């Protein structure tokens, strides 16, 4: 009957099935515009359903304007409904066959198997027990106020900086902070200054927007800012506590010069303090923020100290940027979910964070020692370490070697996931002799065997001249 | 001794106190560059602390480059550290004194007091019990796959649309979807077409970016698309199931014409299906997506059906847009937190969502009746309703009246929070005689008393000529 096939056991009601079937045939032109539909009585009889069912279906067609009806006349198909449907081309992604990764030295990877999940679950449970109906509402782009307060206390305990909770803004990780700051700090014809090499996060956003970039070369002490002195700069992005990826600590003289320049030329310094919690030797390094809080936007994250899929970070914003930040965040995603914010507040308040970080610092310090020893054992004096005093990775320099694309491909084919520093560089590239080794997530055996595998591969490639200059 | 005052009971270690104090005085220039610091023995004696403590403090200064030291010589303050600190001007926000809100008719407000929080807490607990360490990692910009699958089932049950879970992308609410779509669909010199009036979400993002806009007038049936026929359009944003804010249902003829035009001129239709779950009379309205899934980007959210601070929504993306979406989301905030996604999966899988929405639909239908009755009782025939068949608000038209800024201010002063439709309009404004009344969050008494208060205010203002043309 009218090409309608009903399935009595379907979860979709009979009326809806009739509606969907008629609608489909109207759209494809099988039932032409102006054509009369059968009367409800007739169709009901034909399909063996109640007349009410057909009336419901016709009502749906009427509500959505597929048919028009006049008192006493049969319903007709409305004009102008026919759509010529294009064939949908199936765009099946071409999947490359990869050699499985056996030794994974990717960077920025915390050891999640040691995360105190039962304790965190307690905090979540506490949060579900304390949240009120009012807190299910939007609470605005700044973030959960008690969390901002606890972060301020935490920053005093952990980084010795004195921050007004009013200036702390919760984010979905550091990534979101960089995205927002690009929009907030943008000035036409002014450049963003980045370290070369640097993390692709902020770099990619700037590239996508087509904004001007100014690269600052990086040496063992971090960024060299002298090249930006006579440029028009809207903001400078730096990783002063542990340059990413080379690990240098920006010396106080450069810091002071940067702050003076920022003041003079009226730009902001974005301080990415991404790995500062894990420092293994030497004294803790203070953030630049502590030098001049009016010029520095401090960006912190809990992705490494807790876990990445938590999606909580924070920014300390100078007052003049706050209104713009609120506006942009409001129309970006409004705010973070409330539940994790309440849980994290309790985690910080009870000093569980302090304990967890102390614990992990010991663990990571041991892993780092295993890595350094394994590298020294395999490569003897052929290698220099960069930035091994903190963080979850080190950079290895092999003087005289050059890690070409071919070499990186042979790593992949050998099941070794490892990155060359040059992958993080702009076109001007002075770091072709360096590799990055992340170790936070590996156990001691994995580290030792991975280093051995890398050594063999480098030895083979060297003898074939692949990795040698 | 050297201006250092130690607090023995502080949580900050003595070494750190010494470090911070010396650092501060170096930065302000009180201790000049090149100046020698006292020997560690001397300072330790002077401060009454152990020599180790002072050594630690000096190590910190050395690490951060505040001092330089040579074997056998006293440490000296490094060059170029002095920062002239600007006076930080206190920018205390000027807080306006507001009359407290007594009758709050804001739109889009669910009744959160009826949210089944104990049930939701169970889902959260279930999620904390099932998450593995691996799931604490980044899982990428698409979203939690089992959630995408449950949303596909839900869409079939609730909206009768057949969606491949591969095409569903989780978002932080609809807000984030609009933000991303502006970046993804932007074409230079092409306009985004918006309904006039429309929601400020996507409009504001477009304005911030300085993109071209094309307004489509809205009548009782929704957007009139004839004005975009000969324009260069990159995307059309519509609310076809319940136009925001006027409530019209876009008729099938206009839908088909829109899809044909999109195909012809190669643009995408963004379908904001924001309120479709709450429909009180007539048959359910299908999304445009069901007409041509290759041309429509469907945007849904759980902010109204569950709660706003959950921050979960989703988008159904045509294949050609998916790679770009992933790229932009990756550098925006990477992904949603994992916990709520797992909880929502279970909530959908167990059909708790279906039950909750059925329950709330009954509740909101009653509130809506109370509102309609109260308005009819007070205003008799002076009022026409727009879009009262679904959603959490209605628009009221008062033919012959004009709701001026002065009138809206007098509402505020009378403790009535209410919005005029004209607040959502572009400059061309044909809706100055309409008010919006949100009722989802109000109880029956609040609705009745609020309508009465509004009636009195309009009556007073009419007699003073304020709200009359």
TrEMBL record, chains A, B:
<dbReference type="InterPro" id="IPR000524">
    <property type="entry name" value="Tscrpt_reg_HTH_GntR"/>
</dbReference>
<keyword id="KW-0238">DNA-binding</keyword>
<comment type="similarity">
    <text>In the C-terminal section; belongs to the class-I pyridoxal-phosphate-dependent aminotransferase family.</text>
</comment>
<keyword id="KW-0804">Transcription</keyword>
<dbReference type="Pfam" id="PF00392">
    <property type="entry name" value="GntR"/>
</dbReference>
<dbReference type="InterPro" id="IPR036390">
    <property type="entry name" value="WH_DNA-bd_sf"/>
</dbReference>
<dbReference type="InterPro" id="IPR051446">
    <property type="entry name" value="HTH_trans_reg/aminotransferase"/>
</dbReference>
<keyword id="KW-0663">Pyridoxal phosphate</keyword>
<dbReference type="InterPro" id="IPR036388">
    <property type="entry name" value="WH-like_DNA-bd_sf"/>
</dbReference>
<dbReference type="GO" id="GO:0030170">
    <property type="term" value="F:pyridoxal phosphate binding"/>
</dbReference>
<dbReference type="InterPro" id="IPR015421">
    <property type="entry name" value="PyrdxlP-dep_Trfase_major"/>
</dbReference>
<dbReference type="InterPro" id="IPR004839">
    <property type="entry name" value="Aminotransferase_I/II_large"/>
</dbReference>
<protein>
    <submittedName>
        <fullName>Transcriptional regulator GntR family</fullName>
    </submittedName>
</protein>
<dbReference type="Pfam" id="PF00155">
    <property type="entry name" value="Aminotran_1_2"/>
</dbReference>
<dbReference type="InterPro" id="IPR015424">
    <property type="entry name" value="PyrdxlP-dep_Trfase"/>
</dbReference>
<dbReference type="GO" id="GO:0003700">
    <property type="term" value="F:DNA-binding transcription factor activity"/>
</dbReference>
<dbReference type="GO" id="GO:0003677">
    <property type="term" value="F:DNA binding"/>
</dbReference>
<keyword id="KW-0805">Transcription regulation</keyword>
């Amino acid at each position: 009957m009218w090409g309608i096939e009903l399935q009595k056991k379907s979860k979709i009601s009979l009326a809806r099935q009739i509606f969907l079937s008629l609608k489909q045939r109207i759209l494809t032109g099988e039932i032409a515009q102006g054509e009369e539909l059968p009367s409800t009585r007739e169709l009901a009889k034909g399909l063996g359903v109640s007349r009410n069912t057909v009336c419901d279906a016709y009502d749906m067609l009427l509500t959505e304007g597929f048919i028009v009806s006049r008192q006493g006349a049969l319903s007709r198909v409305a004009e102008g409904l026919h759509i010529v449907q294009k064939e949908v081309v199936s765009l099946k992604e071409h999947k490359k066959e990869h050699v499985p990764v056996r030794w994974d030295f990717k960077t920025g990877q915390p050891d999640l198997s040691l995360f105190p999940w039962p304790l965190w679950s307690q905090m979540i449970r506490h949060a579900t027990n304390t949240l009120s109906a009012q807190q299910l509402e939007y609470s605005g782009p700044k973030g959960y106020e008690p969390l901002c307060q606890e972060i301020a206390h935490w920053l005093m305990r952990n980084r010795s900086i004195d921050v007004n909770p009013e200036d702390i803004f919760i984010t979905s990780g550091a990534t979101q902070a960089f995205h927002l700051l690009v929009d907030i700090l943008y000035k036409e014809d002014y450049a963003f200054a980045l370290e070369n090499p640097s993390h692709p996060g902020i770099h990619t956003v700037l590239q996508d927007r087509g904004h001007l970039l100014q690269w600052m070369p990086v040496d063992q002490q971090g960024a060299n800012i002298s090249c930006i002195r006579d440029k028009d700069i809207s903001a400078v992005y730096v990783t002063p506590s542990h340059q990413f990826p080379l690990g240098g600590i920006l010396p106080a003289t450069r810091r002071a010069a940067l702050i003076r320049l920022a003041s003079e030329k009226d730009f902001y310094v974005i301080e990415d303090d991404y790995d500062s919690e894990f420092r293994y030797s030497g004294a803790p390094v203070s953030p630049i923020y502590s030098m001049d809080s009016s010029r520095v936007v401090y960006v912190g994250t809990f992705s490494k100290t807790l876990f990445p899929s938590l999606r909580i970070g924070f920014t300390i914003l100078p007052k003049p940027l706050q209104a713009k930040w609120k506006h942009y965040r409001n129309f970006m995603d409004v705010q973070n979910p409330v539940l994790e914010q309440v849980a994290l507040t309790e985690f910080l308040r009870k000093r569980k964070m302090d304990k967890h970080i102390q614990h992990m610092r010991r663990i990571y310090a041991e892993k780092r020692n295993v890595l350094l020893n394994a590298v020294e054992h395999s490569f003897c004096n052929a290698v220099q370490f960069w930035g091994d005093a903190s963080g979850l990775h080190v950079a290895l320099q092999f003087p005289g070697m050059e890690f070409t694309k071919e070499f990186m491909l042979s790593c992949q084919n050998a099941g070794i996931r490892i990155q060359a520093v040059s992958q993080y560089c702009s076109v001007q590239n002075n770091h072709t002799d360096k590799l990055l080794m992340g170790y936070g997530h590996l156990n001691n055996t994995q580290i030792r065997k991975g280093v051995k595998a890398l050594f063999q591969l480098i030895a083979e490639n060297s003898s074939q001249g692949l990795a040698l200059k």
